[in-house]
Each structure stands twice: as structure tokens, then as C-alpha cells.
Design goal:
The chain has 250 residues and is α/β, with parallel strands linked by helices. It has twelve helices and eight strands. The protein is 44% helix and 15% strand. 43% of the residues are buried. Bound molecules: 2-phosphoglycolic acid.
């Protein structure tokens, strides 16, 4: 399969500017000969600090969210125009923490996806089931719905800038990882959804990352699976010691 591995670090609500700069510098140095595609997504207040450090390197700059509106009276929100101004290249949308802790639904996430694509960003669209949904045998159906609804109105051209991240909610930050087999099965079903919507060629190209307690110890086994094309890493992305071995998995 000709897909390139894509390893992304989601720093969530961690780090001060000095800490973020230090980590970004370490990653630039350690990954300069890395073979895969890389991204870091620092918090909004850190973007201006990290931007010049990763600029021109093989590490893309990502944001963790954006407002659903382009601009206007939206207290506390951050606009795509402001993100573009800082040099942000990609936006993570539909993260489970946004879906479940901040009540973002499929329709809202879809609007954000369309807005981000319209403004030239790459998008990482996160999907994934809750534990109870998995226990009810609904994991595939939930991911199908989130993928289909999230991509509504996205053209094939737009899709080429979309990465999907499968992140089972019960595996995020819990230390529990989906087995490579279980993850691969869902990745395969998501790829089938993309095939239904866009055809086989697009489905073969789309990058589907796995997220949920990815660590240096499990990265290689996950990435060995046919349909797992990379990782969206949270906790282990906060230190070069743990992110670099994932990013350079053998
Ligand atoms: P985790 O987070 O690696 O800490 O489980 C993953 C994510 O939320 O993207």
C-alpha cells in the first residue's frame, strides 16, 4: 500500500510557552531524518511560539479545534483566520473530548470541517465509540455515522486534505489500547465507508490514524496492520522520549 505513515502529537491543554518551545526544538532535531509525515498540535496560546520552530521542517503545525464561524461576536472562540495568520496548517476536529465534554455534535463538526477545508487547512477528523457503544456491538455503526456526517459536503478534492483518526473513547488517556486486530477491523470498516462515499481510489489513499494510548511499546504492532496508517498521540506526545520512538517506529 502506497500510503505514507502520519504521526501526530496532540498536546491538549499542556505546557507553557517555554516548555512548548523546548519540546518543539527537540522534535525538530530528532525527527529531521524521520521518514514519515509529522504534526504537532499545541494549545492555541502556544502556536505563535511553536510556529517559527517547526516552519520549514518536516513537522506540520496543527491546532486542536477552531470556531465554527469565520469571525464575529463569539467570545472565547478562535477563528480559522487567526489560525491561518499564525501559520497553522492543519486542524484536529471532532476529538472525543470536544464531542463528549463540550457537546460538539456531528452537524457542528461537519460545519467546522467544511470551514477549515474552505480556508485551505488539512483536517484530522476524529471518530470513535464509547465503551458502552462497543459493548452493545455498535462500534462500527458509530464510526460510520461520525465519518459520513463529518464528511457531508466534502468533495473528493477536499477529501485529499482529510485524515481520519479512529480513537475509541475508552482507550484515550486510559492506558488501554485497542488490540491491533480490533483497531484494524474498525479502520477497515471506516475505509469501506469512504469507498461507499467516494469510491475505491479515494478509499485506498485516505490516511486513517489510530489514537488511544499509543506508546513506544505498542506503536510498531499497531502500525503493522494493513489499515492503520499512523497515530494520533496524546500523553506520549508530551515528551520527546516517548514521542520520537513512536514517530520513528521500526
Ligand atoms: P492518548 O490520547 O494518547 O493520551 O490516549 C490520544 C488522543 O486523545 O488523541
Amino acid at each position: 500500500m502506497a500510503r505514507n505513515y502520519y504521526i501526530a502529537g496532540n498536546w491538549k491543554m499542556h505546557k507553557t510557552r517555554a516548555e512548548a518551545a523546548a519540546l518543539a526544538k527537540e522534535l525538530v532535531e530528532a525527527l529531521k531524518d524521520g521518514k514519515h509525515k509529522y504534526l504537532v498540535a499545541p494549545g492555541f496560546t502556544l502556536l505563535e511560539t511553536v510556529a517559527p520552530i517547526v516552519k520549514g521542517t518536516n513537522i506540520l503545525l496543527g491546532a486542536q479545534n477552531c470556531a465554527v464561524e469565520e469571525q464575529g461576536a463569539h467570545t472565547g472562540e478562535v477563528s480559522v483566520l487567526q489560525l491561518k495568520d499564525l501559520g497553522v496548517q492543519a486542524i484536529i476536529l471532532g476529538h472525543s473530548e470536544r464531542r463528549h465534554n463540550y457537546r460538539e455534535d456531528d452537524a457542528l463538526i461537519n460545519k467546522k470541517v467544511l470551514l477549515a477545508l474552505k480556508h485551505g487547512f488539512d483536517v484530522i477528523l476524529c471518530v470513535g465509540e464509547l465503551l458502552e457503544e462497543r459493548e452493545q456491538g455498535r462500534a462500527e455503526a458509530v464510526c460510520e455515522r461520525q465519518t459520513t456526517e463529518g464528511l457531508k459536503g466534502v468533495t473528493a478534492g477536499g477529501l485529499s486534505r482529510v485524515t481520519i483518526a479512529y480513537e475509541p473513547v475508552w482507550a484515550i488517556g486510559t492506558g488501554k489500547t485497542a488490540t491491533p486486530e480490533d483497531a484494524d477491523a474498525i479502520h477497515g470498516s471506516i475505509r469501506n465507508v469512504v469507498e461507499k462515499l467516494y469510491g475505491g481510489a479515494e478509499a485506498a489513499k485516505i490516511i486513517i490514524q489510530y489514537g488511544g494510548s499509543v506508546k513506544p511499546e505498542n506503536a510498531t504492532q499497531l502500525m503493522a496492520k494493513e489499515n492503520i496508517d499512523g497515530a494520533l498521540v496524546g500523553g506520549a506526545a508530551l515528551k520527546a522520549d516517548t514521542f520520537v520512538p513512536i514517530a520513528k517506529f521500526a
